[in-house]
Backbone:
C-alpha cells in the first residue's frame, strides 16, 4: 500500500483528506543505477508540510498524486547499482509506501546494528545532526551559558537540550503540558522546563534567567520567538531552526517585532540547512554515537506502528503531541 | 541659550513642543575633573529620539527638563582636568546648548585640522565608524558581492555604500526621491539607486540583483526590510543598524515576516553597537582618514546654522529630508 498527496495544505493545518491511499502494485522495472527498497521505518518532520506546499525554499518539489515523501530507512530488495546489494540497510528520502524504487546515488548506507532504523532517523539522523551542527556551529554554546530551547519536546529540541548540558550550559526548555515538562527535566536532564500552555514564558524566563538568554534555539516562531527575543543577553546567538507556528497558521504569521533587540544586545540571529555541513556529517554522527555509548545522551522517541496510520501520526506532530522523535514503523 | 526636553515622543513623531527653549545662565562652578566647553557643532542622530523616549536598550537616560543630549564637538573654555587645557577641541556627548559643563573623562580629544568638527561628527565620528565596523566586521563584504543599503541617503548609509565600493561590491542604495537617488549614483558612486517613493523596491532589487543580496545593510526596518529579506542570497549577512520606521510609528511596527528566509538561505541577521569595537576605533578612523585623503570617499553632509533651529533640523532627519550627515553649527 502507499499514500499519495491529494491536496496541498497551503496556509492551513494538515487534513486527513490531504492524503489518498492506494494499493498500486510496486514498480517492476528497475532502471540502471536504481534500487528497490523495502521500507522499514519513516520519519515525521515539520518540513514535510513545506514539501507538500511546494514552498520555494525547500528542496524537493512534490506533485499531486505522487507518493508522499518522507525520510526513511529500508532494506535493499533488488539492486542495479554497484553501491548496494540485497540485504543492505539504506537511508534517504523514501516515501509513505511499503516499497520504493529510488536512485542508489541518493541513498546512504546505514550500519546494521541494533535499533539501526530508529537511531538512523533520530539521534544519528537529521534530527541529531541538525541539533549537533546547529548548536555547535551556529549557537556556539559556552560553558555557563543559558540555553533556551522552544519546541523542546520534539525530535530536534530534545537532543539540543541534551547537547547543551554536555556543553556545560544551563538548559531551559519550553514545551506544552506539565507531563512533557516533567519528562524534559526528569528524563532528559533539562535544568528547567516551562509549560507554555499554563505559564507565561516571558515572565518565567525572566525569573529563571535573570541574566538573559545566551543561546536561543527556536523551533516555533510566532509569539514565542518574539517574547524570547525580548529576553536575550548581550552577544546572544539566536538559532532559527523551525517555525511550527508558521506551518500551522493561515497566511504568513507576523515576524518578530522584537527583532530590533539584536541591535541593543549586539546579537545575531542565524538560520542554516543541514546540508551546509554535509562534509562534516560523519564527524557529527561519531560524536553523537560516542555520547550515546557513554549514556550522556538518550534517544527518546515515539514509534507508531503501521503505514496505515501515517497521516494521523504526522498530524500529531503539528499538534505538538509527540515526545521526542516521532517515527512510523512500516516493517521489521 | 539651550533646549530642554519638555515631553517624551513615545510611539509618535517628534513635535516642536517636545522641546522647550530657555536662557538659563551657564553653570558657574566647575567641579574637579570637569571641563567647560563652548559647543561648536552638533550631530543629528536617529538614536536621539530613543534617548528622549528613554528606551531601555539605549545608553543614556534622559530627564524631562534636562538639556537635550547630542553628540558634538566643542572647544574647552575652562578646565579642572589634567587631560585638557583651554583651547583644546573635544568630542563626546554634549547637548543643545551654547555651553556645557561635562566630565573630562567622557570626552575625547579631536585633532585640530581644517573642518575638524564636521569630520569628527561625520566620516571620522560615529557615522563613519558605524559604517566602517558594521560593514567590515558584521557585513563582511567580499569582492563581487551585491550590497544593498536602505536609508542610503543618510549619514551612515551614504558612507556604507562608499566603503562597499572600496571593498569591490556592486552597491545598490534605496532612498526617497529622484534627486537623492541621482546624488547617490552621480556624487557618491553607487552603482544603482532605487527611489522607494516612486518604484517597487522588491521588484527593482529582483531586476538589479537577480542573484540576490549578499550583504543587506538596514537603516529602516518595517516593510522595506521585510521585502528585502525575501531577496537575500545564500549565506547573506543582514546588518541591522537602524529602524527609522520603528522610530516614527505608533506602537511597535510588525517584525519582518520574511525572517524565516534566513533558514532557507543559511543567512545571518546581526546587530551591533559602535561601542563593541571601542578598542579598534582608532584603526577605523585611520582607514577612513586615508580613504578621505585618497579621495576614495567623500563626506557629504548638510550643515544647518544656529542652535535656534535644532528642533526643526532633527525633525527633518526623521522625515528623511537630509542628504548625508545632518549637522547643526552652533558657533565657529
Residues:
Amino acid at each position: 500500500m502507499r499514500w499519495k498527496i491529494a491536496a496541498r495544505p497551503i496556509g492551513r493545518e494538515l487534513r486527513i483528506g490531504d492524503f489518498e491511499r492506494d494499493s498500486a502494485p510496486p514498480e517492476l522495472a528497475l532502471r540502471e543505477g536504481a534500487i528497490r527498497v523495502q521500507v522499514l521505518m519513516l520519519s515525521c518532520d515539520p518540513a514535510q508540510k513545506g514539501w507538500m506546499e511546494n514552498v520555494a525554499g525547500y528542496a524537493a518539489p512534490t506533485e499531486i498524486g505522487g507518493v508522499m515523501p518522507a525520510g526513511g530507512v529500508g532494506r535493499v530488495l533488488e539492486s542495479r547499482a554497484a553501491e548496494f546489494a540485497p540485504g543492505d540497510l539504506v537511508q534517504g528520502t523514501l516515501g509513505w509506501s511499503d516499497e520504493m524504487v529510488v536512485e542508489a546515488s541518493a541513498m546512504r548506507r546505514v550500519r546494521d546494528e541494533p535499533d539501526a532504523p530508529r537511531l538512523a532517523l533520530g539521534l544519528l539522523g537529521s534530527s541529531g545532526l541538525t541539533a549537533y551542527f546547529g548548536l555547535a556551529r551556529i549557537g556556539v554554546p559556552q560553558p555557563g551559558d543559558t540555553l533556551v530551547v522552544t519546541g523542546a519536546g520534539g525530535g530536534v529540541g530534545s537532543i539540543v537540550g541534551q547537547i547543551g548540558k554536555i556543553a556545560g550550559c544551563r538548559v531551559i526548555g519550553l514545551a506544552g503540558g506539565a507531563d512533557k515538562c516533567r519528562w524534559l527535566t526528569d528524563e532528559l536532564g533539562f535544568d528547567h522546563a516551562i509549560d507554555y500552555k499554563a505559564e507565561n514564558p516571558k515572565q518565567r524566563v525572566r525569573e529563571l534567567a535573570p541574566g538573559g538568554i545566551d543561546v536561543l534555539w527556536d523551533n516555533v516562531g510566532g509569539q514565542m520567538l518574539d517574547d524570547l527575543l525580548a529576553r536575550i543577553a548581550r552577544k546572544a546567538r539566536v538559532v532559527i531552526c523551525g517555525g511550527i507556528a508558521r506551518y500551522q497558521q493561515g497566511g504568513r504569521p507576523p515576524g518578530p517585532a522584537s527583532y530590533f533587540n539584536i541591535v541593543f544586545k549586539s546579537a545575531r540571529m542565524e538560520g542554516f540547512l543541514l546540508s551546509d555541513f554535509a562534509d562534516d556529517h560523519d564527524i557529527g554522527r561519531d560524536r553523537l554515537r560516542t555520547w550515546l555509548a557513554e549514556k550522556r545522551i538518550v534517544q527518546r522517541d515515539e514509534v507508531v506502528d503501521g503505514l496505515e496510520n501515517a497521516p494521523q501520526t504526522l498530524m500529531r506532530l503539528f499538534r505538538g503531541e509527540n515526545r521526542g522523535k516521532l517515527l512510523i514503523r512500516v516493517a521489521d
